[in-house]
Amino acid sequence: MEQRDAQERRFSSFNLTGSPGLNGRDGLPGEPGLDGIPGRNGLDGLPGLDGMPGRNGVPGFDGVNGTDGIPGTRGERGLKGEPGIRGLPGPRGLKGESGSPGMDGIPGINTWHVTGTPPSALLIPPSIPGSTRHKSNKQPVVVIREGENLRLRCEAAGKPPPLVVWSRQDGGVIDMGHWHDVQIAGPLLNLTLINRVHAGVYVCEADNSIPPADFKTFDVQVHFKPYIRVKHWKVGTYNGSSATLECLVESFPVAISYWEDQVGRIIGNSTKYSISYHQNPDVVWKTTMQLNILTIDGSDYGNYHCVAKNELSITRGQVKVHEIDRTRYTPSVNHADEITFGPAPPRIQSYEELCPAPEKCQKCEKCVGHSAILYGLRVEKYGNVTYPGPRNRTSDCMLSAVGKPVYHSQTNSKYGSWMRDTHPRGQQGETKYFITSPSDPNYLYEYANKNYYLHKENSKTHTLPTPFVGNSHVVFNGSFYYQERNEPNLIRLDLATNETTSLTVPGLATEGQVFLYQDSRDYLDLNIDGNGLWAIYSPAPDSATVIMKIHPYTLQVEYIWNISMNHKHYGNYFITCGVLYAVDSSTKRETRIRVALDLFRERLLDVDLPFNNPFKRTTMLGYNYDNKEIYSWDNGKQLTYPVKVIDMDDRDTDEDDEDPEEARRPADYDQDYEVDPLAHS
Length: 681
What we know:
Number of helices: 4
């Protein structure tokens, strides 16, 4: 191509025009030229037309299930739905495990009608509190140190009054100083400067010829340090022979015994030594220990020790083995007086030897009048106001036994009050329970029945017109009675109409730490019984006890007693049948009711009843005369105590026949036995 172009240019320069030549053959392709500079982008083209809709795709495969997500927060509790229709009874379930034994009930009585006697003569067999007649494994175990004094009590009730006789279960004698008795009559058994021979089981039996007789047993365990008696303290023998060493050991708890040789090494059974121990089958605290030395040689002579050790002390006895001339004497023992090691038992002395009977005082003239001195108590009218006097007594009875506490429910509050209406207006009121809490002094919580109460689902909340103070309230005939906070007022609130009645209590404390009992938050203690409404308080700062008798409907004061009983000395008071009872302590597990004052007759009654605070903090105590139960609030636990009451007519109430010297004062003890630990010091 390039050559042809060159020829054309050459011929054109001569302006000659030739005939067209033949087309030449294409030349060989030249090498590719360099890339040109890219041109500018062209303008955007016009939008294209929409395409035709595509066909539906083929359905895909199912995906794999995902993992569960994190649980969300719990939503609020919805409203309680309507009860559903009761379903069909299900199949009978498998037999459950046996339940635990129930609590002991109140002992019953047998009555007998004797031919030829009037029907009013009721004969009752004897009964001992804590009797072991049906519970042989429940006998009290009394642990005492030798040399102390022990007093066992066995009070029995029955009609006619039973005779109480003490004896030993093994049939042995009871050592009482100069006398050895097989049986001792009376409710008290005094063992003074107690000796190891006094250890054993003692039985008090009560009998009044009305079967069955009752009895109670006491297992007395006397603890003392080991005491060793060596009858033959010097044993003679010769080479090639043998020797027997013996020690008599007395100790309880039973001692661990062993032998030591001349240098203090413990001896064990071997070909050289044979050791044996023999415990007395009749007396557990007596043991005989023997050491037999075989084939004596020169190294066996010297002092051997019998050792006895118990938790109180360790005692070492000594036996000497010496050589004798075999040509002149046969092996023998020295028959000199025995020697002893350790503290010897004290000499037995009777109670009469230690405490001779005091001289009998002259008879005091009987005090008469409204303010008679009753065993050191003064009972007078309170204040100078004249009152109409208490209405006629409608219930005349007294407590003869208090049963074991029965658990019902509990809260976290150490203080509180729970109540039943002792005289409800209708049948619905008979099932209701009421509770107050010191943290909510403006409310009274009502529970329709026991099921609601146990599940803590109150059916009604009563808003009080004024807040309360304390825990000793009562509910009676549909009304709630309480002390108004910071005011000396007793309030009666009708729970049906919300109408209130108030009474100003003279001298009633309203603030400060001048509470009524040892461990309470009460200034006023309210009680209700068959005779009406009672209010117990103490006018601050006086320590005397004031009892106010009030008409339960009108709150009219009928009478006020002023009693010289220091309320701080007692754990709680309560009133039933017009009798004021005092519980010794509200913080001791085992305590007693030993003071009972008949407010109508103004005289002390002979009572001594055990009482139990199982959780050791009773802050509320009240008697429900309708159910014959004591209600308590013990460290947040709600308990009841079944009680047994007897009519006053069943007891001799004729004061003119009573000898003041023989009248029983309230005893100062907490159990059926007393131990004097300082007797031997």
